[in-house]
Amino acid sequence: MKHTIKELEDIASQVRRDIVRMVHGCQSGHPGGSLGCADFFTALYFEVLNYNKDFNMDGVGEDLFFLSNGHISPVWYSTLAHAGFFDKKELATFRKLDSRLQGHPTTHEGLPGIRIASGSLGQGMSVAIGAALTKRLNGDKSYVFTLHGDGELQEGQNWEAAMFAPFHELDTLICTVDYNGQQIDGPTKKVLNLDSLQAKFEAFGWHVINTDGNDMQAIVEGLHYAKTLTGKGKPILNLMSTQMGAGVDYMMGSHKWHGTAPNDEQLATALAQLPETLGDY
Amino acid sequence: MKKYTYTEKKDTRSGFGAGLHEAGKKNENVVALCADLVGSLKMDAFIKDFPERFTQVGIAEANMIGIAAGMTIGGKIPFTGTFANFSTGRVYDQIRQSVAYSNKNVKICASHAGLTLGEDGATHQILEDIGLMKMLPGMVVINPCDYNQTKAATLAIAEYEGPVYLRFGRPVIPVFTDPDQKFEIGKAWMVNEGTDVTIIATGHMVWKAIEAGEKLAELGIDAEIINIHTIKPLDDEAILKSVKKTGCVVTCEEHNKFGGLGESVARLLTTELPTPQEFVATNDTFGESGTPDQLMSKYGLDAVNIVEAVQKVIGRKK
């Protein structure tokens, strides 16, 4: 462990503060899924991912990460800033004119840490497969990680990719699904039931694991465990249970905070629940 | 009229296959992907010599475009191959976000474009792909005119850094360009110098424009014929220089006149040099089943249609 669990939890608390402040600052964006994945991003960047802070697009010899559900950009931007990719002051520019922190992540403005645009859903797994194929051709043994929304799996392209990766034995690929059961129009069970994602991915030939995405110890251990499963001929699918809005009581467990910004009073309520640990931007 | 002859007919897709094979020999970073149309795209030689650098994706074009975008990360130069319809309309959003907006070095190579796909009919005969692709910021759009030019274009795009759409076709047509030509992206080719009208043609329509030029010469009309193989970026300079001399223009393409080469030329001319223009192109229609020759005739894409358009546009000159 590079950090204690307490240290990681403190980082995640600051990331959560950043998320609600960023979304409040521009009165738009997606706090729910961002908050739910704050622990995952912290664990990934501060404990699991092998990367170079001096960003290089090709990432040869580095682990790569692709965010497929690009609307949870606030959690990624905050994590990248605290991980040292750019100054955290830039978080104040989120979704504003002339910013590198676009509403959805993009390479277009040259923000370090981002290798592909995402936002239009369902494309990230294919891109990650491509990056993993290139690593294989280059003899580069490092890992390729992804994150996907659960509702996002309603996009058909995911299943093209899900069929491809096991067939080609892409066993350096570790995909995580943010299994929060919510999407814009309501619970996934009501909008278009995903049913058993475990059974679906296993039927496609993936090695599926289950983790608790809002328990720092569990998610760190889960991602390390996922790495031990690589190199065995199967891609890894991490079904990660989270609560949308985790860390802010009034946002938790409801799709209503998928894409809504808090007002001043709601912001104060949220910040009172999230200790400032690394200093606000 | 300069005399053009040919000794053989070949398909432009075979020019792509030969170019891809040669690009693969020149640069080990060139990789190829296909969505279950290896034979149609003439990828066999590449696959035989570089099996580890070829990825068969299956009938999953969206996945193929995403994989190609991802493969650029780490330095590969992916060439995707499928029919033009499945290379563009089917995967427009994947190209838009993962390739164009992300500025990835992907070469989208599209065969069986246009009516000359023939008997399969309108589901497969895309006549809108040039428009779809040219609207994407940063996308280079190329539609070469014969086997040799397609091969040269394939080699040229391998050396160009950035997203490219390369459009070619199914039928065998005359091979009339130089086998050793140097292909310059964005640079028009002067097919024939003339003074009375500028005929601007792309793809399979270039040979038809040459046939039309010969008929026009018999009628005493001296046509300048320009091959625009690169629809974007357009060679503004070559077009303006020619039109200044001739005072009228006919554009020829195997594509809908809505959104094609003709509209790109019209956009240039209305802002820089308003000029009478006629369009030889399909007119807001789908195709249908038939032989390539029957279809080109029925939809007004023959040399005779170019001759008629020239006579009409010359009559519109002040």
UniProtKB/TrEMBL annotation, chain A:
Protein name: Transketolase
Assigned keywords, A-Z: Thiamine pyrophosphate
Family from the record: Belongs to the transketolase family.
Domain of life: Bacteria
InterPro entries xref list: THDP-binding, Transketolase_N
Species per Swiss-Prot/TrEMBL record: Pedobacter jejuensis
Gene3D superfamilies in UniProt: 3.40.50.970
Domain called Transketolase N-terminal: residue spans: 11-270
Keyword Nucleus attributed: no
Keyword Isomerase recorded: no
Known cofactor(s): thiamine diphosphate
TrEMBL record, chain B:
Entry keyword set: Thiamine pyrophosphate
Entry coiled-coil feature ranges: none
Entry cofactors: thiamine diphosphate
Residues in Transketolase-like pyrimidine-binding domain copies: 10-175
InterPro entries membership: PDH/Transketolase (IPR051157), THDP-binding (IPR029061), Transketo_C/PFOR_II (IPR009014), Transketolase-like_Pyr-bd (IPR005475), Transketolase_C (IPR033248)
Family indicated by similarity: Belongs to the transketolase family.
Protein name: Transketolase
Species the sequence originates in: Pedobacter paludis
